[in-house]
Write a structure and sequence with these properties.
The chain is built from no helices and 27 strands. It is an all-beta fold and about 400 residues long. A hairpin with a 7-residue loop joins strand 11 and strand 12. The termini are far apart.
Length: about 400
């Protein structure tokens, strides 16, 4: 776009994304230039959105930013404005970037870059933004916008956009040499229109975006005129996984020596898949581990149930068999102790069961003496016994072992 007395501005465009097949609306975040601030001429600013920060930093030949200054007006690039309208009729603010290379600038310095960093725990995905006014003068020696956009995935590799959308009106095109990540201006578009917009989408999990904006003519050094583009609102999905822990036992009243089965379950209500999920359930002293069968792996020594990944929606479960010991404690608790994604509702990440142990009765002999024709023998014959929960029967016999009916006078 040819320079005018007005300032030109760079902005980030917001696109609302719907995520089909998920149980809840994903944690969509938007860096909206209508509600945030950018101090004039600052080369780096950070904004907290969702579970992390978004930081934009300018580099390259930043000395050329806003190189032509209207008399009495301080340089304000980068800055927020609605001068580059992108077809919105001035209703949307954007972040301004203007450059003018001084005479004698070497070809290698004809570039300004801006890096967008995301510090969210597992990166972000479904990132969408639009650059306004990626165009070219009819005289290429005046100005020519070329933008190359790449990203860094969570493994540190470089990835191209999942898609690039252009108006197709002849003002810009995908670069013939790099059609997967580069857009070239081809004709001059009015700054009020969206005729030279370019929308970039990254569906992958990424941690950083690099935008390289340059004057692409190779060969002898030129003196291109002032150039502007605009970066509108950035929209992205900040992954979250709402996990919930459940625990049950197959026998709430077991006896000592019997086996019980504890069933553990983790449910993922989304909106995103969960990775790196782990649960801790270390059996207390009241039980001896027998076996574990189900999803993932269970370490009886540490109590760690390593699940791994759970889809959205999805669940994982495991059955832990244990023998009831003679002494407790018998309360058994399982808790979600690890997951890569933030959990928006951590209050349901633990569950406990406490079986009531049905103790077996034990009896000890009692001796009570009665004098013939005298006082009846009496006493608490159950005081040294463990009755348990079963019906208890008390019997008596004389010193010769002959059964005696309780309550019968002794002659």
């Amino acid at each position: 776009m040819v320079s005018t007395p007005n300032r030109f501005f760079l902005g980030l465009f917001a696109y609302a994304l719907a995520f089909a097949g998920q149980s809840a609306m994903a944690a969509t975040q938007t860096l909206d230039w209508d509600v945030v601030a950018w101090p004039d001429s600052s080369l780096s600013e950070s904004y907290t959105l969702g579970n992390g920060d978004v930081t934009i930093t300018f580099g390259g030949n930043t000395a050329a930013l806003d190189g032509i200054i209207t008399a009495g007006t301080p340089p304000i690039a980068p800055a927020i404005s609605n001068n580059q309208q992108g077809g919105f009729g001035g209703a949307q603010q954007s972040l301004h970037l203007a450059k003018d290379y001084p005479p004698g600038t070497v070809q290698s310095d004809y570039e300004i870059s801006f890096v967008i960093d995301f510090t969210h725990p597992t990166g972000v995905n479904n990132v969408s933004f639009t650059l306004f006014d990626v165009d070219r003068s009819n005289n290429v020696n005046n100005f020519w916008d070329r933008v190359r956009v790449t990203a860094m995935d969570t493994g540190g590799g470089t990835v191209d956009p999942s898609s690039i959308t252009l108006p197709g009106l002849g003002f810009n095109q995908l670069s013939p040499t790099s059609p997967t990540n580069t857009v070239d201006g081809t004709a001059s578009a009015a700054n009020t229109t969206g005729n030279a917009n370019a929308t970039f989408v990254f569906n992958q999990n990424i941690t950083q975006i690099l935008i390289q904006w340059r004057y692409p003519i190779e060969g002898p050094d030129n003196d291109p005129n002032r150039q502007v583009i605009a970066l509108h609102d950035i929209t992205f999905n900040d992954p979250e996984a709402d996990l919930a822990m459940s625990k049950s036992v197959d026998n709430a009243n077991p006896q000592i020596g019997q086996n019980v089965i504890f069933t553990l379950g983790v449910n993922n209500a989304g909106p995103d898949a969960a990775t790196g999920v782990q649960v801790t359930d270390l059996l207390p002293a009241g039980y001896t581990f027998v076996s574990a069968v189900g999803d993932g792996t269970y370490n009886a020594g540490t109590g760690l149930w390593d699940i791994g990944n759970i889809a959205s929606p999805g669940s994982a479960s495991i059955d832990i068999t244990a023998t009831v010991n003679a002494t407790g404690p018998y309360a058994n608790t399982a808790s979600i102790t690890a997951a890569d994604q933030p959990d928006p509702n951590a209050g349901n990440n633990s569950d406990s069961v406490t079986p009531t142990i049905d103790l077996l009765p034990t009896a000890s002999p009692d001796t009570n003496t009665a004098i013939e024709g005298g006082v009846d023998a009496s006493g608490d014959v159950l005081a040294n016994d463990t009755l348990g929960d079963a019906p208890t029967t008390v019997t008596a016999a004389d010193e010769g072992g002959t059964p005696i009916t309780l309550g019968t006078p002794f002659a």
